[in-house]
Amino acid sequence: MAFVCLKDDKAIYSFHYALKDWIALKEDKHASFKMSCCHTPAILKTSKLGTQFFSHKAKPKDTDCSSGGETAEHIHIKYLVSKTLFECGWDVQVEKRGVSSKGEEWIADIYATKGKAKIAIEVQWSPQAFIETKRRQQVYKDSGVRGLWLLRSGSIKDRNAITCDYLYKTKEVPVFSVYKNKKEAGSSYKVFNVNQEGAEESLTHDRFEPIALDLEDFISKMMSSQIKFYAKYSPTSELFLKIIEQTCWACKRDINVVALVGYKNANYGVPYEDCRYAEHITDCSDRTIRVINENFAQTYGFAPLKSMYSKTMGGRFMSNSCPHCGVLMGKFFISQAFIDARYDECVVETHSIHIPRLPIEINGKEVEIDFERGEWVMINE
């Protein structure tokens, strides 16, 4: 089966035509159709699955123009993907050949371009190890092409082929599975490994629900950025302050003081206040204090935090002070003031600044964070 042929010596593609136009093309007695592979006469056909394709009227004996042993389903999926891409405004080629910057050759099942965007879609109908998929994906990357993989699902009991090593889901290797229930008349190809927002908006850790999309709908949404990759962990944390307005105990003037240093982390792109890391200023590192003074003090009108001596505490500690008379604002005074005022309008939460991601601890030990891993999510409109 071929999706391209020469009509009056001009290349045409079968997936460019709606069904009624395809029928009209078949009935065009004045047009000359030739196979682009060998320039022998071509005829227009439609498979039982609905694939529109070109075939040799009489296959030449001295030319090998085979379809590479592809199954009818494999070819039908390539046809549907190509047709959907075309309808979405992409320029589409089938069995496109290329060479990477490192000299490695490749043949893409489907190659599509729009503006500067280049994408290769592989319909992988035979088993392929994840390591091999990553290798071939790198070849596309070295060619300036974005790769997308559609794997064949096994059976009705295991509709999602995203198992074993393929469970390592990253943005660099977009892998999805395709399944069609042959026992259901008129069933369509379904794509797995896509999620949607869960019903509970407040959830931050397990906030997605797996869904299945019709193949054409999946391609359309993927190409229009309605399906995006969310890394589980963001590479940065957000630092912010909670500030209260108080009266200086010495000069009786109104002042702003830092009551709490807060942090937000993001799970799958959604920031949330991570109370595990909240700190009083006396617990902050010298580096954090410098960050606070440089990014917040002038904007929010509080005196730069600094180490001061307290007779009551009998030692030095990091503290707020009055910007007018310079006296220390005691740790107990500030803590109690925040507790009393935390539900009051006088509590101000500052803007956030990004800092390197705070470490994750399990049983008191820091755990290495995998910033690549995540999920593909359909964006709610």
Q: Major sheet: order of its strands?
A: 6-7-8-9-10-11-12
Number of helices: 6
* CATH architecture assignment name of the largest domain: 3-Layer(aba) Sandwich
Structural class: alpha+beta
In short:
This protein has 381 residues and is α+β, with helices and mostly antiparallel strands. It contains 6 helices and 24 strands.
Protein described:
This protein has six helices and 24 strands. It has 381 residues and is α+β, with helices and mostly antiparallel strands. The protein has helices at residues 19-26, 72-87, 130-142, 215-223, 286-300, 331-341; strands at 4-7, 10-13, 33-35, 42-46, 52-56, 91-99, 105-114, 117-124, 146-152, 175-179, 190-197, 208-214, 227-231, 236-247, 254-267, 270-273, 306-310, 315-321, 328-329, 348-349, 353-356, 360-362, 365-367, 374-378. The protein folds into three domains: 1-66, no CATH class; 67-232 and 362-381, Trna Endonuclease, Chain: A, domain 1 (3-Layer(aba) Sandwich), CATH 3.40.1350; 236-356, no CATH class. Strand 18 and strand 19 form a beta hairpin. The chain starts with a strand and ends with a strand. The model has no long low-confidence stretch (mean pLDDT 86). It has a seven-stranded mixed β-sheet, with helices on both faces. Strands 14, 15, 16, 20 and 21 form a five-stranded antiparallel β-sheet that branches.
